[in-house]
# Entry
Amino acid sequence: MGFELFVVTNQSGVGRGYFSLESVYVIHRQLQNDLRAHKLEAFKDFAICPHAPSDHCLCRKPSGQMIKDLIVKHHISPKHSYMVGDKLIDAESGHNAQIQGIIVRQKPAKESDFPFFKTLLEFAQSLQA
Ligand SMILES: [Zn+2]
# Structure
């Protein structure tokens, strides 16, 4: 549909010492390779919060900071963008960056004001309607 795709991810396992930031990069590179191998659109960029909650950083979702940084870096139109995730904090991070938050998950999320879809396809079809 012409959307540019980005990943915005909390990886507190790095801050907690469970795995390295380099191992997160390795997984992201593999993800990109898998998408390209299937002739699918790869992600344009990744925003990673490597901090533990106890670090009290400014980037960890539900903060909108990582999204705001991507908006500036890639000249993204917030009005024509969506933050899609399976957790309430994902949708909230979008809201905190002034973009529409969307929840996609099989089981209904906690009661919230965010639009909810069971699959990414269902969400994409709603955009075409
Ligand atoms: Zn952070």
Observations:
- The domain at 6-128 is CATH 3.40.50.1000 (Rossmann fold).
